[in-house]
Amino acid sequence: MRYLEGQPREKILAERPARFTAGEAREALAELLQILEESRCGGCWLERVSERFEFIPSSDDPEQADVLFTGYFQPLLDASPVATPEYRFPLYRRPPDLITAELVTATPEVAVERVTGRVEGESFLPYYSRREIEESDRLRGHEIAWVKDPVDLFFLHVQGSGVLRFADGRRLHVSYAASNGRPYRSIGRLLADAGRIPREEMSMQRLRRYLAEHPEEQRDIMAHNESYVFFRAVEDGPLGSLDFPLTPGRSIATDGRLFPKGALAFIATDVPVVDAAGELKGWRPTTRFVLNQDTGSAIRGPRRADLYFGTGETAGAAAGLMNRPGRLYFLKLKQPGRR
């Protein structure tokens, strides 16, 4: 709600799946909160919700109605404030030579695209790739901390935020600050296409197992994803792309170019049930209201959504297994009124 309260009422948040203004999104959230506060029984509030809200599918094309839901979480990593023989892999803050600019095109229609790169002489070049960063010292001096395992660091990049745990007990939340602008490329798809992991077995846990069993391949496999993330220290976390804290099970990430940021949504899918060891025990059908609070480089197109599961190993186990079809709806008041 705080994000929407900071936006001009008539600001258009998105044109899909319908035109949403900040005022409309704010009114929908306020109405739902009022219904929840005033209702005294489950059936009562559900009836009022169905009367007051329009549930707008993420696509008006029936063939595009299914959405693939994956999961993400906030990992907890042991870290050191200085490099040591054990802690050798750095997390970097945003480097000063990373430049984000707006590229305006006039044909076939006027469009503004954000591009990321660096200046060398009189040329604007793509920023360094993952391999170029990791196999050089060009970003020395911009480290936030160091971690033990390059695979843990890689998956921290994929998740976009995490908690660093130092030997003295101190914890530091780190959140996404920028990326190198290179496209995200899935290492899971790489290994599936090569026949190294059966597609039906694909999960974050299965990927980690493959990398652990083939340490000699780790560097080349991870370099396939040229996208590289830079971090910042934050007071609390994790923060979504709107710079507000995420709520486990209630925050989703979608393609920020398409859907209304901060808007109330409703999902219907299955979520994994895991035991204390992180093993899959089954799937639970789930319907719930969520907030569209985040985005990600791997979440592209109208048929993708990422559900936030929380912090730590249990959340990571569930998030790593989450890969199910479902439906996504955005909510508008049928008769919006000013408050």
For the structure shown, list the relevant keywords.
alpha+beta, 18 strands, 6-stranded mixed barrel, 6-stranded mixed β-sheet, 339 residues
Please, could you describe this protein's structure?
The chain is α+β, with helices and mostly antiparallel strands and 339 residues long. 23% of the residues lie in helices and 36% in strands. A six-stranded mixed barrel has the order 4-17-14-16-15-18. Strand 1 and strand 2 form a beta hairpin. Helix 2 runs antiparallel to helix 3. The chain is globular. The model has no long low-confidence stretch (mean pLDDT 92).
Give a summary of the structure in a few sentences.
With 339 residues, the chain is α+β, with helices and mostly antiparallel strands. The protein is 23% helix and 36% strand.
Whole-number mean pLDDT? 92
Instruction: Estimate the strand proportion.
Output: 35-45%
How far apart are the first and last residues' alpha carbons, in Å?
A: 14 Å
Residues in helix, %? 10-25%
- The 3D shape can be described as globular
Main β-sheet: number of strands, strand sense, barrel status?
A: 6 strands, mixed, barrel
Q: Rg from C-alpha positions? A: 21 Å
What's the total number of strands?
A: 18
Number of helices: 9
What structural class do the secondary elements suggest?
alpha+beta
